[in-house]
Design brief:
Number of domains: 2
Order of helices and strands: HHEHEHEEHHEHEEEEHEE
EC number: 2.1.1.-
Organism: Streptacidiphilus jeojiensis
Pfam families: Methyltransf_25
Largest sheet: 7 strands, mixed
Protein name: Class I SAM-dependent methyltransferase
CATH class of the largest domain: Alpha Beta
Keywords: Methyltransferase, Transferase
CATH topology of the largest domain: Rossmann fold
Length: 267
């Protein structure tokens, strides 16, 4: 079983946490929440207890609490959880530091599990993906619904070109490449360079380089590992540019796949 003391995702997101909400301020939790809620309801979960596995600073967790779910948020990054607890202290929601590859000591069983924002890709080894899906499956009620997303090959190819984000006091560049020299042609490194203005001295800026290590996983890998974890893949949608969903994932057309799995009653 994997241990997490120096996990690459925890390191990357601890470093990203101070400006994560600024970096993702354009994310529309209402529109995407509608989409996710529709997929959840179509799969007919047995209840409304929800695990937001990889909750970040808690914005998605709060969004689903407002939709009538009873959520718990977990994230591998202590810095992200600290922000979630501070920002949403009056919400009554429990936020915990946790690695989804390990057994869940926090509540459960859950009727719905969300695992969004490339978390499956941060499991940068097939063994780690298998461990995570087994752990998530073990904390779900029979008939429980798991929804997760993952980057496609097209999504990664687009990240070969530099992307730039700017807001007041923040300038971020992102660019990545596959790492065939490491023996796994599906492994990908995204380099984030963050330039932040000092609040004490507007003429002073700091620069930090943060590596985000990911791996591209195929639909076949997801299907096999879900099955081993007692989960059935019931839908695999490609995310279209206009925000709608295609009936299947095309690795050369879509930038993300959105997957729905259901916990078997005999597992």
């Amino acid at each position: 079983m994997t241990t997490l003391s120096t996990d690459h995702a925890a390191v990357a997101y601890d470093a990203t946490a101070p400006f994560y909400d600024a970096l993702t301020q354009q994310d529309d939790y209402t529109v995407f929440g509608d989409l996710l809620e529709q997929l959840i309801k179509q799969a007919r979960p047995p209840g409304d207890r929800l695990l937001d596995a990889g909750c970040g600073t808690g914005r998605s967790t709060i969004a689903f609490a407002k939709r009538g779910f009873h959520p718990t948020g977990t994230d591998i990054s202590p810095a992200m959880i600290e922000i979630a607890r501070s920002t949403h202290a009056d919400s009554g929601i429990d936020f915990h530091v946790h690695d989804i590859r390990l057994p869940f000591p926090h509540g459960g069983p859950y009727d719905v599990v969300l695992c969004m924002s490339d978390i499956a890709n941060y499991l940068a080894d097939p063994e780690h993906l298998a461990e995570a899906l087994a752990s998530l499956g073990s904390v779900m009620n029979p008939g429980g619904v798991l929804v997760f997303d993952a980057n496609t090959r097209r999504g990664y190819r687009l990240m070969h070109e530099p992307h730039v984000f700017e807001s007041e006091g923040l300038h971020v560049t992102l660019q990545g490449r596959f790492l065939p020299e490491e023996g796994d042609p599906e492994r990908f490194k995204l380099v984030m360079n963050a330039f932040r203005q000092s609040p004490e001295d507007p003429e002073s800026w700091t620069r930090e380089s943060i590596d985000h290590l990911q791996r591209h996983h195929t639909v076949e890998e997801f299907t096999a590992f879900l099955d081993a974890a007692g989960l059935d893949l019931v839908a695999a949608h490609g995310l279209e540019r206009n925000g709608s969903l295609a009936d299947s994932v095309d690795e050369d057309v879509h930038t993300k796949g959105l997957y729905v799995a259901v916990r078997r009653s005999d597992s």
